[in-house]
Automatic annotation (TrEMBL):
It comes from the Bacteria. It comes from Novosphingobium album. Pfam families: DUF1214. Residues 93-182 form the DUF1214 domain. This is DUF1214 domain-containing protein.
């Protein structure tokens, strides 16, 4: 048997050819104006694409049946999407308002957990003419429940019902447009454990049907939209649609006196700000924030705003893992090599990147200051009592990070 002998051959091949053409177009975006021409940046752009190529059909086909839901990690240490933060985990399950579901799990010790039912994905961001962010983003939160609101037994076990008639206890309603369960978990200390989760449709009593040609072609088209969208939208989405970024040319500083307390931030249950940085080989950047309460996270990202290598390198800091100076100021140092400062953020050899700030448990405003200095002079610009670490202590810190991240993802 050869091509053309099957009645669906032409349609399947045409669908695959369209996907390959779109993948080729997505690859061309590695050379966009926003991405520096240095070889390491060009390679990283292709890595951003190939990491997501690996999950394109998991999202488009393997998990995309709301009658047979599955929970899927869409960011991991080896798979990043724009805007992901090092100390978060991100999971989703495709659902439908036509069905009801039972989510069971065991609450871990992560400091923050948010489970959200997401509604329809509009063509444009509400209130603007800007297109919605690429799939699987862009849909509108409908209802959510936080980790501390879950009712659990003494061992942390729980069940959460989604959709259907109202129930006492853990229940999230859906609407006819509900399409996704979006799960974010954030970690503070290295010893915190993840929440285990599994989902099933209530009344699921038959095997999932196998995909036929029409379903396969639909998945090819969805995956083509996904890979072209992620290369098209990042990093421009950050400064076109986010109030946390004022101007892509405003490098090495957060927006002036960013209070990170907009109405949109409030709906999302967090405050956020974002900085685009650029360092020459002989430079370092000192980032300062006056201490405030709450659960905040600083995380390093690349040009395409995907998180940097957080498994092996110091790319993020939280209250539990940050040394605060005696004057109650948080000081972080972005540098190409280890300056011996405890709060070092590793640029990983990139000349350009992003630093994101999230605050999840407080509405206190954050005020940021930055200073671009020569790398050789960085210690002269820091307080005399700045916490320092030896190479041996840094190695211990990195091993502790490595083990904790692996625990979060079960790898």
């Amino acid at each position: 048997m050869a091509y053309g002998d099957g009645p669906a051959d032409n349609d399947l091949k045409a669908g695959w050819d369209r996907f390959c053409d779109r993948l080729r177009d997505a690859g061309d975006k590695a050379f966009k104006q926003a991405n520096p021409p240095a070889p390491i940046h060009r390679a990283d752009a292709y890595r951003f694409l190939t990491q997501n190529l690996g999950q394109a059909f998991d999202l488009a086909l393997e998990t995309k049946d709301a009658a047979y839901p599955q929970i899927h990690y869409f960011t991991t240490p080896t798979m990043k999407l724009g805007g992901d933060v090092s100390d978060f985990t991100y999971r989703q399950a495709w659902i439908s308002g036509e069905h009801s579901y039972r989510l069971t799990g065991k609450r871990g010790t992560a400091r923050w957990l948010n489970l959200t039912v997401q509604g329809p994905r509009p063509q444009t961001i509400p209130g603007t003419d800007w297109p919605s962010l690429h799939e699987p983003f862009g849909d509108i939160p409908e209802r959510n429940i936080l980790g501390h609101q879950l009712q659990t037994d003494a061992d942390g076990n729980f069940e959460l019902f989604i959709g259907g008639g109202e129930r006492p206890g853990n229940w999230l309603p859906t609407t006819p447009g509900s399409r996704k369960l979006f799960i974010r978990e954030a970690f503070d200390t290295w010893g915190e454990t993840p929440t285990t989760l599994t989902i099933e449709r209530i009344g699921m009593d038959t095997p999932r049907p196998l995909p036929g040609p029409d379903r396969m072609i639909e998945a090819m088209d969805w995956a083509g939209d996904f890979v072209t969208g992620l290369m098209r939208d990042w990093p421009e989405h950050s400064w076109l649609t986010s109030r946390g970024v004022c101007d892509p040319d405003q490098r090495n500083q957060f927006p002036a006196d960013k209070s990170a307390n907009t109405a949109d931030d409030t709906r999302r249950g967090r405050m956020a700000a974002h900085m685009i940085w650029r360092l020459q080989p002989d430079e370092a950047l000192i980032v300062e924030m006056d201490w405030h309460d709450g659960f905040w996270i600083f995380g390093m990202g690349g040009v395409f705003v995907g998180s940097m290598d957080f498994l092996h390198r110091p790319t993020s800091y939280t209250p539990a893992r940050t040394v605060v100076d005696a004057d109650k100021v948080v000081r972080l140092v972005i540098a190409h090599d280890d300056p011996g400062v405890h709060n070092w953020l590793d640029s990983q050899g990139f000349s350009d990147g992003n630093l994101t700030y999230r605050n999840l448990m407080s509405q206190n405003p954050a005020t940021f200051r930055t200073r671009l200095v020569k790398r050789a002079d960085v210690l002269a610009h820091l307080p005399a009592d700045t916490a320092m670490v030896s190479p041996e202590e840094r190695a211990t810190m990195l091993l502790e990070r490595y083990r904790a991240i692996k625990l979060r993802f079960g790898i």
